[in-house]
Amino acid sequence: MIDTTHRIMSVDKKMRALADPVGRLLTDVFHLLGLFAIGGATVWAAAGAFYEMMHKGAPSIEDLLLLFIYLEIGSMVGIYFRTNHMPVRFLLYVGITALTRHMIGFVQEKTGADMEVLVLAGATLILAFAVLVIRFTSNRYPSPTYGESGASGVRVD
To answer: What CA–CA distance (Å, rounded) separates 125 from 150?
Structure first.
């Protein structure tokens, strides 16, 4: 009985020794393909938005903020590609910029102050506070680098 258990455990270790590198390779390939797809789609969308701006003759503030959103997404993809760390702050910056863009468009359409403007401003403030918290905690409690004990390879700053 003990000998059978030992053999099963030995076979399990050998299978894992073969499967782990293949799994890592497939995961890395998936990450790279996904990053290139997201990066390509971002460039495509930004080029389309820029083309539409050129067609209009002049960019609006909303158009410029949209290009800034594309820039932040591209930067986030580049950082993840180089470091294998997810920069969550960039997602928050995208959210802040998108809310600001929406708020500007809303204010330009309406003449009086409305509850939606207050909600958008409050949401922007919450996201700005989240950036502050993430920056403070990542500065005060730095994450171990990839490969160190307890590190998952994904940072939140």
So the answer is: 33
CB 67 within 8 A of CB 50: yes
CA distance 113 to 119: 11
Neighbours of 64 (CB within 10 A): 12
pLDDT tens string 93-110: 999 999 999 888 888 877
Model confidence, pTM? 0.71
Tell me the two tokens of residue 27. Answer: 């995961």
Contact between 106 and 64 under an 8 Å Cβ cutoff? The reply is: no
Q: Which long-range contacts (CB under 8 A, 24 or more apart) does 41-47 make?
A: 42/70, 42/73, 42/74, 42/77, 43/74, 45/70, 46/70, 46/71, 46/74
pLDDT in tens, 9-23: 888 888 888 888 888
